Amino acid sequence: MLEVQQENEPELKAAVLSLAMEPSLPVVFVRKETLGGYDKTAKAHREGKLHKLLDVNGRAEGASYDYDLIVIGGGSGGLAASKEAAKLGKKVMVLDFVVPTPMGTTWGLGGTCVNVGCIPKKLMHQTALLGQALRDAPKFGWKLDDKAVKHSWDTMTEAIQNYIGSLNWGYRVSLREKSITYENAYGEFAGPHKIKATNNKGIEAFYTAEKFLIATGERPRYLDIPGDKEYCITSDDLFSLPYCPGKTLVVGASYVALECAGFLAGLGLDVTVMVRSIFLRGFDQDMANKVGDYMEDHGIKFIKKYVPKKIEQIKKGTPGLLKVTAHATEGSEIFQGEYNTVLLAIGRDACTRKIGLEKVGVKINEKTGKIPVNDVEQTNVPYIYAIGDVLEGKLELTPLAIQAGRLLAQRLYGGSKKKCDYVNVPTTVFTPMEYGACGYSEEKAIEKYGVKNIEVYHSYFWPLEWTVPSRDNNRCYAKVICLIPEKQRVIGFHVLGPNAGEVTQGFAAAIKCGMTKDLLDSTIGIHPVCAEIFTTLSVTKRSGENILQSGC
Is the pLDDT of residue 56 over 50? Predict the structure, then answer.
């Protein structure tokens, strides 16, 4: 520090202006780098640049933090990152808090997938598949008393919630065993390297950390119309609903909407889906339309190109009775209908707007709330990272968040340089006819490489298990998208049929290894299984040849 005598100030200012191009004092220098005057120094502090310049062997000289890493969000990605960091010897805290839904629903540690997403969804999908198996059984010789076969919503939800409760407990035990501090508290940035944690009693505590990870996920969006939050439910409420929903209107055509509509119909309920525009936005539209057609042919009603404008309660109850008024998206027509339950599945919003990001300078997409990151999941503030559904332009999938979380911790604390692959990601939509995909959709492949460079091979197929009940021939469908200039490398894989997730998972590894159409053709199929069709695809879409099948 240099003391400046008043009589020498003009000369010093001139020298500083010449050296640092700063017209006023004081001017801050750190390790031979000019930060500038007060405003620039304060900005560097907010953005983490000052801390980075002070960094010595991974820790700012003289700095002392409560934790090496604080993870905001106890979902699959956040938990994976926290456990990996702890395994590498770091002191870690996890903050997790579930804001109750308008209906008052809340849940335990583990995030959306475990509590109100993948796990209960797949179990209810399995319940519906068992119903279909019961309908097929007589054709295989089973003699069933139709009057004795009925479904109990209460029994199903109780069993599913008991299983989820065991997972919640297991996660808490796992964190304790790895010496990770867990707080059931709402995390909100209070300033650089500092966070405020507020528990359900409103008691606040403050913690500091060298690095932070945002893994807060998303919550279902509401319509912002009269009656939506008062009378409608979302997937956050459905899986622990204490009564059978009865006649149900599902609003939306996302994978959440179609999956829920599918298993509710599979339980024997009267289900209608209201669609604003297209099915499964972001997915291959050829496949998406086949999913919708199958559902419609199996008793699910669709009201297309309408959006709700008002929800009114006609009668209270469990379930009660609601009146829905909807307007056409094209034209002036008005639709009105009565339903026991209205389930909103119109999309999800990132939980980023109320965690104090503005206090530390983290940039978000103001329209979506999503967080832009670089290729190592780092935000514009160097000591703050983000993974999972809050990321801008990335797939919203649990296994992807888990992988990203683990790899991030390994890069930060284990010396790894491995990055997460966000392209060749397998996924499955658990509609009545399951849809599995990996890589590019047909639309995206054409957009990226051009129609002349793409060859699409496809075929219908008939699962052997469906031949005896004689149902749904030429409804299952297989498609691979190949890049012609690269020896017909498979860049897109799509299957519509039973156990699509199991089929897709295996092929996903081959796609990551650069599988070509020749390699696929030279693979010996397992007979008689659905996946066998991918070893015999010979008809291209371009040819227009017939792909209907007469047997398995």
Answer: no
